[in-house]
Amino acid sequence: MTSLTKREYDKLMGKSNSKGTAFLIILSVIIIIAVLVIIKIWVAMTVWNLMIPSIFGLPTITFWQMFGLDVLINLLFNANKFNYGNKK
Q1: Which of 3, 16, 52, 62 has the fewest CB atoms found within 10 Å of its own CB?
Q2: CB 61 within 8 A of CB 45
Q3: Does residue 87 carry a pLDDT above 70?
Q4: What is the pTM of this model?
């Protein structure tokens, strides 16, 4: 009877700790986050373009303008989450 090494046992049982698997998981997470951000920006842009021009007479905006507006809003309103200057 031969004894199996840990690597052979893991391969036989379907367990794999390869770098390729970790890379695919990280890549999948990055792609999912990017798709969710694109959907969020598109929805906000669509709502803006449907409501704001008719209510306030402002022009419609593009995807990249809404992206910039979203970044600006996050910087202004989420900056307190990092507690700059309040190290307790």
Answers
A1: 3
A2: yes
A3: no
A4: 0.67
